[in-house]
Amino acid sequence: MRTYALVILVLYSITAISQNCNNNLSGTVKDSHDNSPLVGATLIVAGTEQAVQTDLDGNYTITGLCNQEYSIQISHPECLTKGYTIKVSSATTKNFKLEHHLEELNQITIDGKVYKDKSKTLIQSGLSIEEIEKFSNGSLGDALNSLSGVSSLNTGNTVVKPLINGLHSSRVVIINNGVRMEDQEWGSEHAPNVDINSAGKLTLIKGAGALQYSGDAVGGVIISEAAKVPVKDSLYGKTLFSAASNGRGTTVSSQLTKSYQNGWFGTVQGTLKRFGDFETPDYILSNTGTSERNASINIGLNRFDYGIEGYYSIFKNEIGILRASHLGGAQDQINAINSREPSIIRDFTYNIDAPKQDVTHHLARLKAFKRFESIGKLSFQYDFQANHRLEYDIRRGDDKDKASLDLDLKTHTIMLDLESKLSNSLNLKSGILGRYQNNFADPNTGVRRLIPDYDKYEIGAYLIADYDLNDDWLLEIGGRFDYTYMDVFKFYRTSFWESRNYDQLFPEIVVEELGNQILTNPEYNFYNASGTVGTTYSFNEDYKLFFNYSLASRAPNPSELFSEGLHHSASRIELGDLRFNSEIGHKFSLTFQRENNVFSFSINPYINIINDFIVIEPTEIQQTIRGNFQVWEYRQTNAELLGVDIDASYSFAENFRFEHQFSLVKGYDRTNNTPLISIPAVNTKNGIVYQNPELNSLRLSLQSEYVFRQNEFPNTNFEVFIPETQTTEIVDVSTPPEAYHLLDFDSSIDFKLNNKSTLTVGLGIKNLFNTSYRNYLNRLRYYADDLGRNFLLNLKINY
Amino acid sequence: MKNLKSVSILFFASLLFIACSSDDENPEPVNEEEIITTVTVTLTPDDGGTPVTLVTRDLDGDGPNEPVITVSGNLNANTSYNGDIILLNETEDPAENITEEVLEEAEEHQFFYTIAGGLNASTEYSNYDSDDNPLGTKFILSAGDASSGTLTFTLRHEPKKPNDGTLGDAGGETDIEATFNVTVE
After folding, report:
1. Does the beta-carbon distance from A396 to B157 stay under 8 Å?
2. Which of helix, strand or coil describes residue A126?
């Protein structure tokens, strides 16, 4: 606390302003949709009431400004009036973009940007509301998959976990409306519990650079934010309806916002999604339906110098898991892998039976901020999350309808953050955090707990500074420290406890011996330091060079520490190790970017060196009464991931644009010199987009996606004796599937219904040629093909 | 600064509040309800001789210990045996008889017998489900001439029924796979 106060005192004393009133502010005003210059936009400087208009090229110049902050209002007949606060020092250039859709009304922000940058020296990619809306039928993972460097680890097509530069689960932190998601993200078949339709913007940071959120994002950070609400009297909303032929399902999502000039606002939003069994080109994927119900409400007061906001959301999702993927031992696995089709194919149905997941996530947030002239913007946030996960297996007798897994994870977090502008060129962000988490595994399942009961306490603090050296150079540096204490109650099988020698190593943690089980009380203290340092160099107007180094350090998750038993959905025995320590990642990332109306690109090579990387890999075959199972054990090793992400966009003719994406990542275990498992294959996306703003915003696009075969993989095959044939057979669980090529078509057109309402009609076809394929990163690839052709219809009304 | 002070007091007060809300009761243990730890196959000869029992027992389920397999004796050549399979969960006290659950859900279960490695014997189902498809907790084993080899019992949950009698055609999920070395003398 003392240091914190000291820091604030130091910041307090730095402020110094000199008066100089000969400055010019100049720049352009453009349409944010197509970057066309806006002619005749009016800029009014609040206070001086000086007004200028943009010329034929959208340029403007305001003269005689002092070294201070100005509020500038920009208006244009076809666009919504927007206000900005601009810091003027010497000759300042500021380019503005205006929107002409009501839905994108945005609140005044201090940086002149609607959404603030999360990291200034790591390139951020993201999805805007229009792009997100195309995935209304899908999930967060599906939407992010469209960005370069992101792939997904799937369980079927409804459990989609984002993978950033080859890393996933606990290594990817998801921030939903300012709250770090605590939704049992450790499991590879646990998808993020975020309603894609509630997001107004998605930002992706491929690294641990966003230290204000976490220091353990070895892979990266995904930030989902709700659409901003304008400070004006207004009532608006949108309703989205989408239907898809594959899965024969629909999604309805609606959102309504009321805002007032005095800063008060309220938004309600809800989504209903229902899908039946999905289909490959040749057969039905039985029991792959899904049913999702989400709602959220946000009420608050937003003034320039203070604000308060309350947010609550509920996410409820029931997901069927392919029936044919639920297996007994190795012999079942051989049968499933060797047969071309899943062993169980039934008629189409909307019913969801076991195996299935039923997850409910509550998120409540209370946030308040106050801007102090002396120290900056101080925010306080309390959030509470309750995640209830039920997993149902195929069971026998009285247990038939009982969940096999029933976990209740509750998390409380309080945060205090301070954003200070120490000078025109130096910004400082700092904060502290406290978190308490409790996991309760219901013993009434009649199945031994997969994740033990535990209490977890965390305290963290961070400090990030960015400094504009001059117009071209920006420096960013940050540090964070987290302390975690875990108090765990775990039952071990006596046989496992002894076979691991834990009885010799940890006799002191034994609480009670109960026949064939032992109750233990492991306690952990983790001290994790993380940091980032980076620079951005802008040159030749269009070019930018980003360099960033980030140090991430992640405490092992409960699944890595305590797994011990059969994992049905993977048909393998998984074993954790209670001796693990934190994993430390060093990521170096370089980006060369050109931003231009005609030709833009970015090239982003990176290397991520991770010490004590926790991997799970097969070690032996275990005989049980149910047959033979492969044993997968978690192990710590040194890993290295390196790769490059490339994006390019070229407008080769009026209204036509060519878009290109390429992602390559290689992952190696440097201790054993073997490739890492589940690393995405090289893939490239290429598309042609036709967009005509004059013709009802008609948009047509054709996109090709080519996914190469993954040629680098660890050989985890194993042999098993089949008594029926008296032969020894290889269970091929490691060979990746062949390369594949998919073609997608997408289109949309706007119709103006009246002054306030627009109807957007979208039509799309996924997997145009109905190609049969399997994806290396789909955990169900052993059992079934991926999805066949899918016709999509999207209707959206803005009002 | 005054504001900051009060906010920080609030912050640490709530931290304290959160930190003190744990209870220290030990969680209750979970005994696996469905696990089959023990398979006992009793082969009673038609001619009234001593029954032969084949037992596989794995008390730690999918834990690291391997099943313990015992065969009480050899089979007599050219003799017919009545087979009876009992499944137990011995992690519970008293042991739970899982055979009863299998009988209740006979339509969703089926035993398969695999004779291999030169054993001269054959099997025949002697109990059926309500659809007259084989269930097989009871069967007849006919031992042929002197020989030795393996006898494997496989219990499938939710197999295709009816099927052609092979494991490959039946599909479903393996609940039990127990192989015994058997000698006919």
Report:
1. yes
2. strand
Residue A617, min C-alpha distance to chain B (Å): 17
A248, A271 Cβ separation under 8 angstroms: no
* Candidate from B14, B19, B67 with C-beta closest to A624: B67
pLDDT over 60 (residue A309)? yes
Q: Domain segments of chain A: what residues?
A: 2-100, 124-221, 222-251+264-323+358-798
CB atoms within 10 A of CB A163: 28
Give the closest of A8, A412, A491 to B29, CB-based. A491
Interface of B with A in 35-94 (CB under 8 A): 36-39, 56, 58-67, 91
**A622: pLDDT confidence band, cut at 50, 70 and 90?**
confident
Residue B126 lies in a domain: yes
Q: What is the pLDDT of residue A33?
A: 55
Number of domains making up chain B: 1
What is the assigned CATH class of domain A2-100?
mainly beta
User: pTM value?
Assistant: 0.84
The answer to whether the Cβ–Cβ distance between B116 and A723 falls below 8 Å is yes
Give the gap in angstroms from C-alpha B70 to the nearest C-alpha of chain A: 13
Report the pLDDT averaged over residues A268-283: 96
Length of chain B: 185
- Quick check: helix, strand or coil at residue A500? coil
Q: How many contiguous H segments (helices) and E segments (strands) does chain A have?
A: 7, 46
Residues 336-365 of A with CB under 8 A from B: 343-344
Domain presence at residue B98: yes
**Residue A711 pLDDT > 90:** yes
Q: Answer whether B177 sits within 8 Å of A380, measured CB to CB.
A: no
Q: Note which residues in 291-320 of chain A have CB less than 8 A from chain B.
A: none
Instruction: Tell me what pLDDT residue A80 has.
Output: 67
Percent of chain A with pLDDT over 70: 94
CATH superfamily of A222-251+264-323+358-798: TonB-dependent receptor, beta-barrel domain (2.40.170.20)
Instruction: Return the SS3 of B170.
Output: helix
pLDDT in tens, A363-405: 999 999 999 988 899 999 999 999 999 999 888 877 888 998 9
A588: its two tokens: 């170096």
Q: Which CATH architecture has domain A124-221?
A: Beta Complex (2.170)
Q: Is residue B80 part of a domain?
A: yes
Hunting for tokens 């995904």 — which residue is that? Answer: A222
Q: Provide CB contacts within 8 A for A184, sequence distance 6+.
A: A190, A387, A389, A407, A409, A451
Q: Which ipTM was obtained for this model?
A: 0.83
Q: Does A471 touch chain B (CB under 8 A)?
A: no
